[in-house]
Amino acid sequence: MKKSCSLLVHFDKATPALANEIKEALEGNYDSLKIDAMKKAIMLLLNGENLPQLFITIIRYVLPSEDHTIQKLLLLYLEIIDKRDSSGKVLPEMILICQNLRNNLQHPNEYIRGVTLRFLCRLNETEIIEPLIPSVLSNLEHRHPFIRRNAILAVMSIYKLPQGEQLLVDAPEMIEKVLASEQDASAKRNAFLMLFTCVQDRAVNYLLTHVDDIPEWGELLQMVVLELIRKVCRTNKGEKGKHIKIIISLLNASSTAVIYECASTLVSLSSAPTAIRAAANTYCQLLQSQSDNNVKLIVLDRLNELKSSHRDIMVEMIMDVLRALSSPNLDIRRKTIDIALELITPRNIDEVVLTLKKEVVKTQSTELERNGEYRQMLVQAIHSCAIKFPEVASTVVHLLMDFLGDNNVASAMDVIVFVREIIETNPKLRVSIITRLLDTFYQIRAARVCSCALWITGEYCLSLSEVESGISTIKQCLGDLPFYTAPEDAESTDSSKKQQSVNFITVSSRRPAILADGTYATQSAASETAMSALNLVPGTLASPGNLRSLILTGDFFLGAVVSCTLTKLILRLEEVQPSKVEVNKAAASVLLIMVSILQLGQSSFLPHPIDNDSYDRIVLCVRLLCNTGDEARKIWLQSCRQSFVKMIADKQFRETEEIKAKAQTSHAQPDDLIDFYHLKSRKGMSQLELEDEVQDDLKRATGEFTKDADDANKLNRILQLTGFSDPVYAEAYVTVHHYDIVLDVTVINRTKETLQNLCLELATMGDLKLVERPQNYTLAPESSRQIRANIKVSSTETGVIFGNIVYETSNVHERTVVVLNDIHIDIMDYISPATCADVAFRNMWAEFEWENKVAVNSIIQDEKEFLNHIIKSTNMKCLTAPSALDGECGFLAANLYAKSVFGEDALVNISIEKQADGKLSGFIRIRSKTQGIALSLGDKITLKQKAGS
Q1: Residues of the chain above pLDDT 90, percent
Q2: In terms of DSSP bridges, do strands 755-765 and 740-749 run parallel, antiparallel, or are they unpaired?
Q3: What was the pLDDT predicted at 503?
Q4: How confident is the model at residue 490 (pLDDT cuts 50, 70, 90)?
Q5: Kindly report the CA angle at 521 between 518 and 522, in degrees rounded to 5?
Q6: 672 DSSP assignment
Q7: What's the CA gap between 867 and 851, in Å, rounded?
Q8: pLDDT at 502 exceeding the cut of 50
Q9: Is 344 helix (H, G, I), strand (E, B) or coil?
Q10: Quick check: 410 and 374 in contact, CB under 8 A?
Q11: Do residues 738 and 756 lie in contact, with contact meaning Cβ atoms separated by under 8 Å?
């Protein structure tokens, strides 16, 4: 049987120390050899070895030693050895130890006394402890505080034993006297902890009689006081008022740990606005005063919890929270911005946006690590503010447009997407945005940003001057035509072709040279630079336009976007320009640009020719300009904008639905009890208590006081562990908290005999860890027992809990084993639906290395029904817009996203096709950063597909 231990020591069992070698070292006269031998013996015992032959040797040769290290190792050895025999009686050899422990408790050296008292805290054998009690009590009045504080802990551990109250009848009175006269902070804390743990009433009386002195107590004692207040107020709500006054007085303590605990205790015990406001102020002060990033992240988590339950109060603190942006840590900044974005209101939006603008300007002037990522976060935050409150868009849009040429492509992309949405939702800003965009267009370096900027130019240049300016800007960025010079003579030699396609620029330079004799001389040299024929056009070598540079690298998708934008501008020019000559002239120049792009794409100077899609789009634009019809004009000038408007509407609808889903829905029963505090006696009640009564009444009236779970859900969580015909019946109720699992196991003795030493033995597989081994029990005939087991979870991975029940009976000398059914921990308990931007999804998809590919295998024949089935089965969120899933085309592609409680991301892409026979085929791809979540989620999807079939 496994034994629980509090220490895990690595020891190489491949070469264990032999018992006789350890014995010889212990019998020697050298303390250093004895120390090494004792360490080896302890390591062997911790690794499951049994060394009974060493006990007498240690009694004879180690016990009399005066070396402090040997004495400490001896106590460790005595702590881990078995002190009882198979029948449960204390070994007679242990009586030999009692005299030594008594001598140590009276030893003139303080260290020996202290470690011996600490050792007694780990003893559970009453037969060994009882003779030592007088010596333990005498140490309560020792002059050294180290001995007194350990003596108090020893008294507490003895008093907590099953027969402790009989062994130490007067222990509470003695500890109370010690508490009254003690001056050492640690000893005083231990004394108060003993009263709190063993006799809570005495601790409460002492606390209430020394209320005025509490702020002057030490940090350790104040922490125990807060723990006592939490326990008392949860068991007796009527005492909450007087104890909350103590908590508020401790908010001004010098210790930051005490201040943090005070704020947490206030939030857990009271919902009064005064208490919540005091806690929020405390958190904000800690956020500014602490330099440790981990502390700041923890405080931000607490503020985030307050935001969820007390948003009205947190709205007042938004500027205090935003001061955390001064930290250079990106995680702190991200969490701060997330909290602030959910607290913006019409009253504070101007201040928030002003703060974000200042931070954006700082990123422009300072060179910090990951500055581009921080700027991207700020741009996204400002975007969110402008969408919620359109009136602030005019104050930020022009500032953000300065970053269209940012080296960080993601940040520049966020800016242009923001500009695209603002120009549609704020018609008043259209003229100024178009003017600024055309002025800064040449600064854009990324092809994706250029594509979006070109689309904006083609859709929102409406007046004659804007259209002409748009065409002129694009021409300037494209440079002079043609893009390359074609060979004139097809029959020319290879050398002549090379000479026509390559231009040599001769540059004369003068530089110093070292002659053979070591003297300096000046020589002229001609350097020849071979330039590609792609850059032969005069005037483009020094500073080619951004569009020209991107297209010359082979980006023909951007060339197609340029062609479409110029086509839209020419079509709109026909509407606003009365002169047909000017229109025809502009159209001819645009056609020349398109033909040049096609000519470049079909040339042999680029490694990759133009793709078919881009070629078809550019040819379509050429044909359209040569022969324009009314229907085509309507599609190009109106339908694109209508599609974009619909996309924005769908996005806003999804955001609204998410906000509604996050909102707490509570329902009150008509017969629920409501206490009206107006009709209660207010005598002796403080303002804080009155506010608390009001908040409790409001919560009760609105149904916020909800039960943990109804009976139906509890029944679904019960798992049968043994069969009905087994002598011991067991069933478990599984409660899954984020980082741990609690098993409440009910064990029923169905026999007519008493079951002795009944033990629930559990083991785990996966990233699960059993916290402690349940103890042994004795079950009377046909009686039951509740056994609780705690299991820690370290990652999102499907785990298995298995084990057995072992017991003894008086008739059968051997132990009986009943094997339990396995308990499978579902991954769905750890992941929850989440949302992320499409750009973030694509970045994570490219970054994550673990992929699990699951083939579609289901009798479901409708694509949307299958998608809904997978969403419901995997507890994930569909990121694909509903409008993108409309229609019946036989194909469906959708992205799903979820996040685990451990912060792990789960990405799923569903691509399915309807076959001719009506069945669905395709694949479900799962990607994650860790292997466990990818495999577990894949197994879950495979299982649910079969279940759905």
Answers
A1: 12
A2: unpaired
A3: 34
A4: very low
A5: 150
A6: -
A7: 20
A8: no
A9: coil
A10: no
A11: no
Nearest to 914 by CA among 860, 850, 842, 871: 860
Give the Cα separation of 69 and 72 in Å (integer): 5
Angstrom distance (rounded) from CA 316 to CA 320: 9
- Tell me what percent of the residues of the chain surpass a pLDDT of 70: 81
Helix (H, G, I), strand (E, B) or coil at 254: coil
Structure tokens at 862: 């409708």
Distance CA 323, CA 768 (A): 40
SS3 content of the chain, % helix, strand, coil (to 5): 60, 15, 30
CA atoms of 461 and 455, how far apart (whole Å):
10
Distance between CA atoms of residues 44 and 12, nearest Å: 10
The residue written with tokens 């919620």 in the block is 388
pLDDT digits (tens, 9 = 90+) for 678-726: 565 555 455 555 555 555 555 555 544 444 444 555 666 788 889 888 8
Write b or e for each residue in 183-194: b if 16 or more Cβ atoms lie within 10 A of its Cβ, otherwise e: eeebbbbbbbbb
Per-residue DSSP letters for 759-790?
A: EEEEEEESSEEE-S----EEE-TT-EEEEEEE
The token pair that represents 64 in the structure block: 């009399």
**Sign of the alpha-carbon dihedral angle for 486, 487, 491, 494:** negative
**Residue closest to 98 by CA, chosen among 69, 73, 65, 123:** 123
Counting other chains too, the contacts that 665-673 makes at CB distance below 8 Å and 24 or more residues apart are 666/702, 666/703, 666/704, 666/706, 667/703, 668/700, 668/701, 668/702, 668/703, 669/703, 672/700, 672/701, 672/703, 673/700
- Whether 137 contacts 155, CB under 8 Å: yes
- The number of residues making up the chain comes to 949
Place of tokens 């798992």: 719
Q: Inform me whether the pLDDT recorded for 807 exceeds 60.
A: yes
CA torsion through residues 128, 131, 132, 136, sign:
positive
